[in-house]
Specification:
Layout: E1 2-7, H1 13-27, E2 31-36, E3 50-56, H2 64-77, E4 82-90, H3 97-107, E5 111-112, E6 117-122, E7 125-126, H4 130-144
Parallel strand pairs: 1-2, 1-3, 3-4, 4-5, 4-6
Antiparallel strand pairs: 6-7
């Protein structure tokens, strides 16, 4: 299966989680494109049945440009696409980028493969153990396909 892992990042944490997830999906035999939002366009989403979307949480949501890209891509996607949304955030946040992205894509008619996932940041660094959590998420997604 072709999978798009697309992310935005500020300090490199979301990029790191995205790459670990993409590596696990590739290791399980899937064709994976791992792309940063700033070098991506709506055409990257076309014909890709599964989107894995990673975003840092900025003011409780995904950065504006990333959110706009996702919204526009979802308009064209319809219900033929599945997705998984994850974010990086501080511990004990009530809501973050993955939660809002998840709701937006469900409202657009896309199918969530699982609930929103979260990776914890302490200061500007990932909490210890989050790398393995990302690898496990990649394996879990692969097992659901």
């Amino acid at each position: 299966m072709h999978i798009l892992v697309i992310y935005d990042t500020k300090y490199g944490n979301t990029e790191r989680m995205s790459q670990l997830i993409a590596d696990e999906l590739s290791a399980s035999g899937h064709e994976v494109s791992c792309r940063r939002q700033s070098v991506s366009g709506e055409e990257d989403f076309v014909g890709v049945p599964l989107w894995v979307i990673g975003s840092p949480t900025h003011w409780g949501r995904a950065p504006f440009r990333f959110n706009t890209l996702l919204r526009n891509a979802a308009k064209d996607a319809g219900s033929d696409h599945d997705f998984v949304a994850f974010d990086t955030r501080y511990e004990n946040m009530h809501s973050g980028a993955a939660d809002k992205t998840h709701r937006m894509l469900v409202k657009a008619g896309m199918r969530p493969l699982m609930a929103p996932q979260h990776f914890v940041v302490e200061g500007s660094e990932l909490r210890q153990g989050e790398d393995e959590k990302a690898r496990q998420l990649g394996r879990t997604i692969a097992s659901l396909l």
